[in-house]
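Re-run with default settings, no changes from the original entry. Doing this only to confirm the output is reproducible before filing.
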Amino acid sequence: MQIQFKGTNYELTSDMTDLATRKVEGLQKYVGKTGSEPLAYVDLGKHTEAHHTGAIWYADCNLDVEGKRYYAKAEAETLRSAIDKMVAELAKELHSAKKKHETMIRKGGGRVKAFFRDFRNA
């Protein structure tokens, strides 16, 4: 998986990029084997320099997998927790898309089976 990072109102440190890389690469199990390599664009940063308390850190990610784009954004009091929330949201979105795909395949298979059952009985 290719990952590109951007820091907004924050200078990226190697610790945070390593953490985000490990977490985002963990999503590979939801993506599965694909023909092309997935691309992830991760933005880590602070909303503004004026705020010092509250949910001032954010992490957002665009994940491109075989022409489909998945997006997640999270805000939290620390950058680590924002990354965790973002990855959890992406995992939820990827899992949902995988379930939808499996359901559509099963429905299609059922329709084909029903067609041949009707064809055989006619």
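The first helix runs from residue 14 to 25. Residues 74 and 86 are 5 Å apart (CA to CA).
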